[in-house]
Design brief:
By secondary structure, this protein is an alpha/beta fold. It is 45% helix and 12% strand. The protein is built from 28 helices and 19 strands. A seven-stranded parallel sheet has the order 13-14-12-15-16-11-19, covered by helices on one side. It has a six-stranded parallel sheet with strand order 3-2-6-7-1-8. The protein has a two-stranded parallel sheet with strand order 4-5. Strand 6, helix 12 and strand 7 form a beta-alpha-beta unit. The chain is globular and about 75 Å long. The protein starts with 9 loop residues before the first helix and ends with a helix. The protein binds a DNA duplex (15 and 10 nucleotides) through helix 5, helix 7, helix 10 and helix 20.
Length: 699
DNA sequence: CATTTATAAATTTTT
DNA sequence: TTTATAAATG
């Protein structure tokens, strides 16, 4: 393949001079081809551990080194951490700081940036608030209650379920009827009422000047089609690079296509064997149909694995063998032989936890730091038992995925106080703030809201005083018990208000609203002091956000990935273990990986067994899990486990080994943990209890 | 009207 | 675990 550029690229120049730029060193021929590719559409199909990140970073460095304008390069990644890492590596490779100026981030964060600039064109005002998943569910809950649905005696879907339906429709761009029939069959009977809720929710969002995650994508797409803003946006970037392309949904694929419409320079990187986000509308179809959408596309396959030992790769390939990949690739490793993966059958969850801890400590003894090890699982609560055992043994860890720091009520309280400042039309934030003082319940809250015009005032309406101004200017009518907190709130808001750059630093605003919390929380929460300590952690996150709106958007779009991001490593230890859902482990690697709960029903999850597509996705998850390991892989299967999340019942499930692993048993060393003789059952009889009480009575 | 207490129910993955 | 409702209490 030749780059059909008229001028010499930096690569060619350096080649003539006999020197090689840094970004080309250590690349294999396929990787070089991808880095050196000219400006047409390029799809890099990169198997697990094939140097995808290195290749992408090198390509960015090459573009910048060739003199492309960094501000006109857009790099879309799955997480912002991935964007940061890529940009950092590109900077190192290119040897100058220009790469820092490229546009990098997730689809959602880039959408916020564009919407802050051009939102007016589609009727979204600059101070808009981004709702996270639980905010969206709460607003839906308000709408549902206003419509009188979910009243007693009726079984109406939970607000979280409705939120999931809304999101699915928006992301997959498929009709509600189809979504309900295929994804939420138990809600089909409520279709008509759901439709009313959905429309009410949409109107409420617009009235409050708030957008949810899905709006961000749809509004960005609408802007690209806008008569005046559209052409501007479509010509804004000379090069667009998209990572994890197998996990884009229809809207995102459209966005990309429209954005590169003028220049045609698109680089997409992905692996259809690792598509694991179909639940949110993503489809590997987009990577498979790449050449249809971009007929002039070049496709490069990276199948040389630099990550795993042959033994681990043998397992990974075995899991992937049954997948119907269009881009079939059997990974070949460059690494020498290592230890065989272990497959451990455990009597129950406790035995599994104990065993995994022992394996982890043993690996550490052999020189694999905790930071080089990870425990992976299908769902957040699969780690519960292990977390107990880790705590008992004082093994420090951080857990990724399933974390709900931002969902904690008190963090939401703080965010709500700041949100009202940004967007006084934000009903949801008001509702939360007004719930803060003692003595105010639903009735008073409604009364106050009506008095200062919450819900009726629209953002940008200068003919009426905003609820915020009214709240600050004059005391509101409320029970005496609530007054101190309300006054403190008005004080904090007065001190924090300000236009754009004139506003006090975010840390200072946080301190101000923290004073309100100091007053209100002790009456609200039994563990107020622990929650107040979180204020400092939140404050530590403000660095870098000059503006409140930026801070709030960052908080919702990129919540701290792990507890450790906020609290620092437990016990001030340097070394800690990673626990992660398989989803959150995408793109990462560790020397030793321990996959737990690899039982049928957990992996694959029994909720995904409805159709072949569901099972295939679970298989890809299993593939992602085992292919994270570089040197050592342990897979454990508890034979007895809780089926439900809230382990109050005795509903045990007797499991079998995952169907993905059973055919691969000969690729593992097998062992058992917690056999029947391990802990002899103690015989406890009623007579013994009676005797015990007898003793107490007679003493 | 707000709060406390009791009771029942809930389907996983995330920007 | 949280979330929603009902009934009792303040």
């Amino acid at each position: 393949m030749t780059a059909s550029t008229a001028t010499m690229t930096a690569v060619e120049r350096d080649a003539t001079l006999g020197t090689e730029p840094a970004w080309l060193s250590d690349l294999n021929p396929q990787q070089r081809q991808a880095v050196d590719h000219g400006s047409g559409p390029l799809l890099i199909v990169a198997g697990a551990g094939t140097g995808k990140t290195r290749t992408l970073a090198a390509r960015v460095a090459r573009l910048v080194g060739d003199g492309q304008v960094p501000e006109r390069i857009l790099l879309l990644t799955f997480t912002r951490r991935a964007a940061r890492e890529l940009v950092q590596r590109a900077r190192t490779l290119s040897g100058n700081d220009d790469a820092r100026r490229i546009w990098g981030g997730t689809f959602h964060s880039v959408a916020v940036r564009i919407l802050r600039q051009h939102g007016d064109a589609v009727g979204i005002r600059g101070g808009f608030t981004v709702l996270d998943e639980s905010d969206a569910a709460d607003l839906i809950g308000l709408v549902r209650d206003d419509l009188g649905l979910g009243e007693k005696g009726r079984r109406f879907p939970r607000k979280e379920t409705i939120a999931a339906i809304v999101s699915r429709v928006a992301n997959a761009l498929e009709p509600l009827s189809v979504t309900l029939a295929e994804q939420f069959p138990w809600c089909v009977a409520d279709a008509d009422d759901l439709r009313r809720v959905l429309k009410g929710y949409r109107d409420r969002k617009r009235a409050n000047n708030v957008v949810d995650f899905d709006d961000l994508l749809l509004l960005w797409r609408a802007l690209l089609d806008h008569p005046t803003v559209g052409p501007q946006l479509r010509g804004q970037f000379d090069h667009v690079l998209v990572d994890e392309y197998q996990d884009v949904n229809t809207v995102q694929a459209d966005l990309v296509q429209r954005t590169v419409a003028v220049t045609g320079s698109l680089t997409a990187v992905g692996d259809d064997a690792q598509a694991i986000y179909s639940f949110r509308g993503a489809s590997a179809r987009h990577i498979l149909d790449f050449a249809d959408r971009y007929p002039s596309a070049t496709i490069t396959v990276l199948d040389r694995n630099y990550r795993s030992t042959p033994e681990i790769l043998h397992v990974a390939n075995g899991v992937a063998d049954d997948l119907e990949e269009a881009h079939r690739k059997t990974l070949r490793t460059t690494r020498p032989s290592g230890v065989r993966p272990r497959l451990v059958t455990c009597r129950d969850e406790v035995a599994q936890s104990v065993h995994v801890c022992e394996v982890i400590l043993d690996a550490r003894e052999r020189g694999i730091d905790l930071r080089d090890q990870a425990v992976l699982f299908r769902t957040g609560h699969h780690a519960d038992g292990l977390e107990l055992e880790l705590a008992r043994r004082d093994i420090p860890y951080v857990k990724y995925g399933g974390l709900k720091f931002l969902d904690r009520a008190h963090i939401k309280d703080v965010a709500a106080m700041l949100r009202v400042l940004d967007n006084p039309a934000d009903e949801l934030a008001w509702a939360r703030v007004l719930r803060l003082p003692e003595g105010i319940g639903p009735a008073w809250s409604r009364r106050i809201a009506a008095a200062i015009g919450i819900g009726s005032w629209r953002a940008g309406d200068d003919s009426a005083t905003s609820p915020l101004a009214r709240f600050i200017d004059a005391p509101v009518n409320a029970p005496p018990a609530a007054q101190p907190v309300l006054e403190s709130l008005a004080r904090a808001w007065r001190a924090s208000i300000g236009e754009e750059l004139a506003q006090p630093p975010v840390a200072e605003q946080l301190r101000q609203v923290g004073e309100v919390a100091r007053l209100a929380w002790p009456l609200r929460y039994p563990d107020a002091s622990a929650r107040l300590a979180d204020l400092d952690r939140l404050s530590a996150l403000t660095s870098g956000s000059a503006l409140r709106s930026r801070f709030l958007a960052d908080l919702t779009l990129e919540p701290p990935a792990a507890i450790g991001d906020l609290a620092g490593p437990p016990h001030l230890d340097d070394d800690w273990l990673t626990l992660s859902t398989i989803h959150s482990a995408k793109g990462l690697e560790w020397r030793a990986v321990h996959v737990i709960h690899a039982a049928d029903g957990n992996l694959p999850s029994d909720m995904a067994l409805r159709d072949k597509e569901g099972i295939d996705e679970e298989r890809r998850l299993a593939y992602v899990a085992v292919s994270r390991a570089k040197d050592e892989l342990t897979v454990s299967v508890p034979l007895r486990f809780h089926r439900r999340r809230y382990g109050l019942d005795d509903d045990f499930h007797h499991g079998q080994m995952s169907r993905f692993l059973t055919p691969l048993r000969d690729r593992f060393d097998e062992a058992a943990a917690g056999g029947p003789d391990d802990e002899p059952e103690q015989q406890v009889t009623a007579a013994a209890v009676d005797a015990l009480l007898d003793d107490l009575w007679d003493a």
